[in-house]
Amino acid sequence: MDLMYKSTRGDEYCTASQAVIKGLASDGGLYVPTEFPVFQKSLEEMSRMDYRELAYNVMSLYLTDYTEEELRYCVNNAYDEKFDTPAIAPLREAGGAYYLELFHGRTLAFKDMALSILPYLMTTAAKKNNITDKIVILTATSGDTGKAALAGFADVPGTGIIVFYPKDGVSRVQELQMVTQKGANTLVAGIHGNFDDAQAGVKKMFSDKDLEKLLAAKGYRFSSANSINVGRLVPQVVYYVHAYTELMRRGVISAGDPVNLCVPTGNFGNILAAYFAKRSGLPVNKLILASNKNKVLTDFFNTGTYDRNREFYVTSSPSMDILVSSNLERLIYLIDGCSSELTADLMAKLSKAGKYEITQEMMEQLVDFYAGFATEEDTLAEIGKLYEETGYVTDTHTAVAGSVYRSYKAGTGDTTPTVITSTASPYKFSAAVVGAIEGDISGKSDDELIARLSALSGTEIPDAVASLSSAPVLHKTVCKIAEMEKVVLDFLK
After folding, report:
1. Which of 306, 351, 273, 297 is nearest to 9 (CA)?
2. Residue 225 · residue 149 · CB < 8 Å
3. In whole angstroms, how far apart are CA 374 and each of 144, 294, 317?
4. How many whole angstroms from its chain centre is CA 83?
5. Do the Cβ atoms of 153 and 185 come closer than 8 Å?
6. Of the candidates 389, 382, 394, the residue with the CA atom closest to the CA atom of residue 430
7. For the chain, what are the domain ranges?
8. Pairwise CA distance, residues 234 & 273, whole Å
9. Which of 201, 262, 293, 363 could be 484's S-S partner, Cβ–Cβ 3.0 to 4.6 Å?
10. Residue whose C-alpha is closest to residue 337's, from 4, 8, 3
11. Residue 122 exposure: Cα atoms within 13 Å on the Cβ side
12. Phi, psi (degrees; rounded to nearest 5) at 460
């Protein structure tokens, strides 16, 4: 029988392909599998697979209503020459840890790993479910999802994509990547607000029944490219299995040995995928959650209280500048006995009061996690320290994880082999990275900083960055939070 998916807030069930199409449940909840599938191949067998074969084997467990032909078509078209390394996700040893480089796709961020396949999963799902409406991807981004989604869905027949981002809350490279995006079916809009504002505005449109009816009458339906979509989450499970099997191939571990997974996270999707991998049979010791100065998740895991009523900080790791971590809802549902009623109640408290508290019994189920945070000073110091020690250069988000891992290892003495997810290319944050390594960068242009980063890291400037300075700006829309729906309707006419 096909694995079914259920809403975290009610009794809404659907197949995997239906969950991919819908993105968000009609009751506002997120879809979770009704049970966790267990790996059908042994770790030894999976260690002999290349990335594409591994992706098929892992994803087929979760996306059971896709035929083998359909899923292999999606996998083979996603993980191709658009990645600049045959390994797709190389593993680099540096400073006593293993950095899983997830930024070798066309937009230089880990979002490419899932957003390269999501358009194929979605268009295949539409055919399977006899959907003829145009699918409008509506997405909020803190910097990286937007460009990766735009690149994936640009000019894909039967789709349109609208991305909202915080106008003053992303790096210059991140913004240029989005506003220079080509494609007749694309729209990018900056908002006067932060990522949480953009995300709340998008969720509001998803739950607006009158808007849904209006769009349906015109032949449109919304879906999401954010990690709330099962089609984003499941492909991310793959690269944790890939990292484990790569350590096996190198002789660092044997099948069954535990590893730690250290993940920089803001919206909780990336580390949730690691948790899914563990639930499916990956031998994971600790899931190390790394936050930046916006440490709402760290506080939650250490106290049991989620409280977004705090100052919002704009940091050098902007993709983590988030105070409402949407994917945490899935974990809450799983640790509260899969109670839709309790989950819905906690999410209502978060919406109304900005906080909620879980029970001691639920806290005890978080034993797999360790949560820490890095200040801005910690983050920049980690970039400089790792470069001085090893010559390896990381971006700011990866440095948050590196800093938290240093603290974890020093405090616990845990020597379990540890994989740190390297979520973005340092070229996307050249000013912060070069400044962390060399000090004062005042007076240097973006191009000069990028060239200097190339010299420091001994790597070629990626085409995705080199081409930005001459690319025309095609998207100039900036709006207030209250104007987001109007922007969508104007675009769809």
Report:
1. 351
2. yes
3. 20, 9, 11
4. 17
5. yes
6. 394
7. 91-108+231-461
8. 7
9. 201
10. 8
11. 32
12. -75, 145
pTM: 0.94
Show Cβ contacts of residue 115 under 8 Å, excluding neighbours closer than 6 positions: 145, 148, 149, 151, 152, 225, 232
Alpha-carbon distances of 129 from 109, 122, 152, 351, 492, rounded to whole Å: 31, 10, 21, 33, 23
Supply the pLDDT for residue 144. Answer: 85
Question: What's the pLDDT band for 96 if we cut at 50, 70, 90?
Answer: very high
Angle of helix 118-128 relative to helix 145-153, nearest 10 degrees, comes to: 50
Give Cα separations from 475 to 138, 363, 432 (angstroms). 16, 45, 26
- For domain 91-108+231-461, the CATH class is alpha beta
Cβ(284)–Cβ(259) below 8 Å: yes
Distance CA 170, CA 188 (A): 14
Which helix or strand (DSSP H or E) is residue 217 part of? helix 209-217
Which amino acid is it at 65? D
Rounded Cα distance, 444 and 346, in Å = 48
CA 138 vs CA 221, 316, 476: distances in Å: 10, 26, 18
Gap between the Cα atoms of 40 and 333, Å rounded: 26
pLDDT of residue 227: 84
Three-state SS at 67: coil
Token digits of residue 32: 């979770």
> CA-CA-CA-CA torsion for 403, 404, 405, 410, nearest 10 degrees?
90
CA distances in angstroms from 489 to 164, 268, 322, 455, listed in the order given? 14, 30, 27, 46
Q: How many CA atoms lie within 13 A of 176 on its CB side?
A: 16
Residue type at position 148? A
H helix or E strand, kind and range, residue 357: strand 355-357
Gyration radius (Cα) of the chain, Å: 21
Whole-angstrom distance, CA of residue 402 vs CA of residue 290:
9
Asked whether the beta carbons of 251 and 308 are under 8 A apart, the reply is no
Q: Name the token pair of 271.
A: 């580390």
pLDDT per residue as tens digits for the range 351-362: 999 999 999 999
| For residue 493, pLDDT beyond 90 | no
Q: Measure the CA angle with vertex 61, ends 58 and 64; round to 5°.
A: 130
